[in-house]
Each structure stands twice: as structure tokens, then as C-alpha cells.
Amino acid sequence: MGIVVGYLATPEGRAALGAAIEEARQRDTRVVVVVSTRPDAPEEQRGALESDLEQVRADLASAGVDHEVRLLSGGDVADDLILTAEEVGAQLVVLGLRRRSPVGKLILGANAQRVLFDAPCPVLTVKPGPA
């Protein structure tokens, strides 16, 4: 059991991580952070990502939350989240969403939509606070 969170080093990703930490505290469970990367990502990006993930691990540890960080390469973001949620028997999946224009709100991102429809558990979506 646990909470699966999709993470990117963006305001949306940080909002999702924060919400996952709060949910994990309330439910007394662990957080599994899923980071999907492209296999063709430049080395500089991978280095920056590893540095950011060290901060993520430190944030989770300082919050006192049991956690695991999974860096997955080559997969589809939605598949990575759904398969991880199934594998760990997740209680919840947490996603960060971008703010959109009124017209854009009619169209949800393809990955977010797939996770909402296909996740084996409830999905919590969050937006970052005002900039």
C-alpha cells in the first residue's frame, strides 16, 4: 500500500509532491515517487534531475515519510504511473496539473486523462499555488 506521485521538477510536480506528503502523513503510509524520463535525454538533464531528486529524497525524509523514488526510463508516463500503482497496491495516485485557459480546461492532458481513467485507485489532482 502507499501513495504514488508523478513527479517532474516543475511547480506542478512540487505541488503534487507536497500533496502526496500530506496524504501520506494522514494515512500513515509510504510515498512512491515516479519520475519518467526519455531514454534519449541529454546527460546534462540527467545530472540536473539526479540533483533535484536528492532534494526530493531530503524533503521526504525531513517530513518523516517512508518513501521510494523510482526513476523510469523509456516508458510512457501514464503507463509508468498506472503500473506502479498496480504493483504497490496504491491507495491513491497524485498528479500535478498545469493551469489552463478556459478553452484549455475543456481538454485535459492525454497522460493525466489516461491516469484518471485507468488508475486502479482514486486519483488526486493538484495545481500549484499562485506564482
UniProtKB/TrEMBL annotation:
<comment type="similarity">
    <text>Belongs to the universal stress protein A family.</text>
</comment>
<feature type="domain" description="UspA">
    <location>
        <begin position="3"/>
        <end position="127"/>
    </location>
</feature>
<dbReference type="Pfam" id="PF00582">
    <property type="entry name" value="Usp"/>
</dbReference>
<dbReference type="InterPro" id="IPR006016">
    <property type="entry name" value="UspA"/>
</dbReference>
<protein>
    <submittedName>
        <fullName>Universal stress protein</fullName>
    </submittedName>
</protein>
<dbReference type="InterPro" id="IPR006015">
    <property type="entry name" value="Universal_stress_UspA"/>
</dbReference>
<dbReference type="InterPro" id="IPR014729">
    <property type="entry name" value="Rossmann-like_a/b/a_fold"/>
</dbReference>
